[in-house]
């Protein structure tokens, strides 16, 4: 929906419940990190809402507040955490099993983490073939599963005294699916729930239950849900902000940083070969070809949009773009993303760039979960609804605000759009970098 300049934003008073479908490596790292930051044990590095700044007005004013001081965001002390998982492990055990955070830090958070226990999950083996857990809802129909999630949400809110709720999907990548007739309208989708239609995935049932109660949702995996006509219709009808999809963390983060620079200097690209090795639960799940297909589609779309080969055919019209993911258990959550980029410059002379990114997947994802939760809550209080394109900064495969528009993948344009949206909400001028005396 159109943004209102200097919109009336309801204050961020009371408790904000953050619901996580999926409380494994990413979810437990996010929760433990928030608790550690609240206790002063660590810094919120990587979080735009906590450490990012925003310039207001001309450079000569030197008016550069922290984002969290500029817009009314929920305070970390006001967050309460809950969610669902196919394993019954509390957040402490889940974090231990994930092996992301060191034991000394976890011990200092032990009491609070042990108190956070997941609710039984909605799960269907056909959608995540390499995941096997028994902490699931044993119900006859998908409609009943949606109703059970609704009961979970209401109970969590009441027991924790929540004033508002947001949800961020931190669960597994489901098998690749194209939208079908059951996704074409809300009416068809609800009938599909009653009929337990096989094309309705668990992540879609979560999204339905949350949106039905007016709860903002972010989709942290490449799953088909918020980008279907049915669920977007529900989001608009209930005036709920949504955003997705697939956290932009390791290799794709590097692509959205490097590719804009190559394009800016008009350097051509013959090929971009990307391979990953990772050994966490995500790697095991992506070892299934149909689950990998969903991730591959999410990753492959980045370069085409940035390079615009139809406008620059001599430079980017014939790129060989390959993406591979290999499950390698010894690596654990410490993913390695390796890129070989074949480029060419003046007079067509060939060059190469090689990148070896030894990253920690959940460490990169956790601050994104925090930012998305806080920004979605802000959007809800500002009266925004539907797809929040200004949050494209966080996604491998961002959703455009309107059908037919191409998504913006350039991370620097995405960040400019995000900050200008915040300025617009507060009634301040956007930074356009036009006119040295004012904005350059």
What can you tell me about this protein's structure?
The chain is of the alpha/beta class. It has 2 domains: 15-247 and 362-425, NAD(P)-binding Rossmann-like Domain (Rossmann fold); 251-358, Dihydrodipicolinate Reductase, domain 2 (2-Layer Sandwich). Helices cover 38% and strands 16% of the residues. The chain has 16 helices and 11 strands. It has helices at 25-38, 48-51, 67-70, 91-98, 103-108, 110-114, 142-160, 186-194, 202-212, 229-237, 251-264, 281-286, 289-307, 313-316, 361-381, 411-425, and strands at 15-21, 79-85, 119-120, 162-169, 217-219, 241-244, 268-278, 320-327, 336-344, 350-358, 386-387. The strands form 2 sheets. The chain has a 7-stranded parallel beta sheet with strand order 3-2-1-4-5-6-11, with helices on both faces. Helix 10 links the parallel strand 5 and strand 6. Helix 1 packs across helix 4 (91-98), helix 1 (25-38) crosses helix 15 (361-381) and helix 11 (251-264) runs parallel beside helix 13. It starts with 14 loop residues before the first strand and ends in a 15-residue tail after the last helix.
| CATH architecture term of the largest domain | 3-Layer(aba) Sandwich
Helix-and-strand structural type: alpha/beta
CATH superfamily heading of the largest domain: NAD(P)-binding Rossmann-like Domain
Distance between the termini: 30 Å
Helix percent band:
25-40%
What's the overall average pLDDT, rounded?
93
Q: How many separate structural domains?
A: 2
Tell me the major beta sheet. Answer: 7 strands, parallel
Strand order of the largest sheet: 3-2-1-4-5-6-11
Query: How many β strands by DSSP?
Result: 11
How much strand content do the residues show?
15-25%
Q: Radius of gyration, rounded?
A: 22 Å
Shape: globular
CATH topology of the largest domain: Rossmann fold
